[in-house]
């Protein structure tokens, strides 16, 4: 464990926000060295420069025993270079904090530590394992090539195990929600603030954006497994929003009615039918403009949903048995609504999948993200035992 924790500290202390291409590649280089030492054949799958994404690390070991495994991690975090940086810090004997410490650098280290345990006992021989660490899980690159190689290599396997953070050691994910994005733009008439609401002027772009967002909340917020979050909103006399950099600039005055506003958000869902139903309702709301305004909304697909299947449940049963045999207690499938989207969903239609096998902790995607260092080695042991049984 001391060696494992040092590896975790090393990668956490490298900023690898998705848009920090150099940082993502640096983390990938650290993990590549570890896979090389285990006898895996490694490669870096580069993305087109226009995509502005670092690429992916792939490590493979060919064999003829047991199931062909596809192990999923990711190198990037949500913490970009312009955000406050938090290094790996032990808070006490059982807790440490740092960027990506559980989502999901901790999960990547679970994979490596389990493989190192098997290698130390001579148990990797003849195993067929592909480990695939993507570089843009948190903000996926645009275009099919972003996941083309990922999907192709997954199709060669029989079982996918994904190591997004564990909610706790008794819960795994047999289903995950998908995610997509939406952009709302509203328009009004620029005029003196004293004329707002008058028939010749109308309500302005900001009131129209507020109406739409509140109607989304009133109409859709109670639907199971469906969430939609407006993560960025700007409005004023002039608005410039750079989607690629997730950055906006705005100017305006309190005595000028805003002629434009922009909102960027995400939409999370369990099935394609739920996604399309939500989009239809959102479009209908957008079309009901306030006087003197107009609005438009566009949608872009992201990660598909991962529906629960009998094959996924069999993998949960394997995790349950391994946990019980180690004296760690039972494992059950968690609520799909408790998780967002993940890379495993891209391949869920092709093979049996299980997620939530990574590092235990709290506060993912927020300052103060933590890892539970007491349960961390227990989940590494469980992973090692599962990998052993699947590759026999």
From TrEMBL:
<protein>
    <submittedName>
        <fullName>M20/M25/M40 family metallo-hydrolase</fullName>
    </submittedName>
</protein>
<dbReference type="Pfam" id="PF01546">
    <property type="entry name" value="Peptidase_M20"/>
</dbReference>
<dbReference type="Pfam" id="PF07687">
    <property type="entry name" value="M20_dimer"/>
</dbReference>
<dbReference type="InterPro" id="IPR050072">
    <property type="entry name" value="Peptidase_M20A"/>
</dbReference>
<dbReference type="InterPro" id="IPR036264">
    <property type="entry name" value="Bact_exopeptidase_dim_dom"/>
</dbReference>
<keyword id="KW-0378">Hydrolase</keyword>
<keyword id="KW-0479">Metal-binding</keyword>
<feature type="domain" description="Peptidase M20 dimerisation">
    <location>
        <begin position="174"/>
        <end position="291"/>
    </location>
</feature>
<dbReference type="GO" id="GO:0016787">
    <property type="term" value="F:hydrolase activity"/>
</dbReference>
<dbReference type="GO" id="GO:0046872">
    <property type="term" value="F:metal ion binding"/>
</dbReference>
<dbReference type="InterPro" id="IPR011650">
    <property type="entry name" value="Peptidase_M20_dimer"/>
</dbReference>
<dbReference type="InterPro" id="IPR002933">
    <property type="entry name" value="Peptidase_M20"/>
</dbReference>
């Amino acid at each position: 464990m001391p060696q494992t924790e040092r590896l975790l500290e090393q990668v956490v202390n490298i900023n690898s926000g998705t848009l920090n291409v150099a940082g993502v590649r640096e983390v990938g280089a650290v993990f590549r060295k570890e896979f090389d030492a285990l006898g895996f054949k490694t490669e870096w799958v580069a993305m087109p420069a226009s995509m502005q994404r670092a690429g992916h690390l792939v490590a493979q070991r060919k064999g003829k025993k047991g199931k062909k495994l596809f192990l999923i991690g990711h190198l990037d975090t949500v913490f970009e270079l312009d955000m406050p940086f938090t290094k790996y810090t032990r808070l006490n004997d059982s807790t440490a904090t740092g960027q990506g410490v559980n989502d999901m650098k901790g999960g990547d280290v679970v994979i490596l530590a389990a493989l190192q345990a098997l290698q130390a006992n001579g148990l990797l021989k003849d195993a067929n394992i592909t480990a695939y660490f993507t570089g843009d899980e948190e903000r996926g690159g645009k275009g099919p090539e972003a996941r083309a190689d990922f999907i192709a290599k997954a199709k060669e396997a029989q079982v996918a195990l994904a190591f997004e953070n564990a909610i706790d050691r008794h819960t795994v994910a047999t289903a995950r929600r998908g995610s997509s994005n939406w952009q709302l733009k509203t328009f009004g008439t620029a005029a003196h603030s004293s004329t707002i609401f008058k028939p010749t002027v109308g309500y302005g772009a900001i009131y129209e954006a507020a109406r739409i967002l509140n109607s989304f909340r009133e109409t859709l917020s109670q639907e199971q497994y469906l969430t939609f979050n407006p993560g960025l909103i700007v409005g004023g006399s002039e608005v410039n929003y750079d989607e690629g950099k997730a950055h906006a600039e705005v100017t305006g005055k309190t005595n000028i009615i805003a002629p434009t506003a922009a909102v960027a958000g995400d939409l999370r869902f369990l099935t394609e039918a739920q996604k399309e139903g939500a989009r239809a309702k959102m479009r209908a709301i957008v079309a009901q403009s306030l006087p003197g305004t107009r609005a438009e909304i566009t949608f872009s697909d992201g990660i598909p949903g991962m529906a629960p299947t009998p094959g996924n449940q069999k993998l949960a049963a394997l995790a349950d048995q391994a946990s019980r045999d180690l004296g760690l207690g039972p494992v059950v499938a968690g609520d799909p609504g408790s998780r967002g989207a993940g890379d495993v969903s891209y391949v869920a239609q092709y093979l049996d999948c299980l997620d939530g096998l990574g590092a235990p902790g709290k506060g993912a995607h927020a300052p103060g993200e933590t890892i539970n260092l007491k349960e961390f080695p227990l989940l590494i042991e469980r992973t090692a035992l599962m990998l052993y049984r699947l590759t026999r």
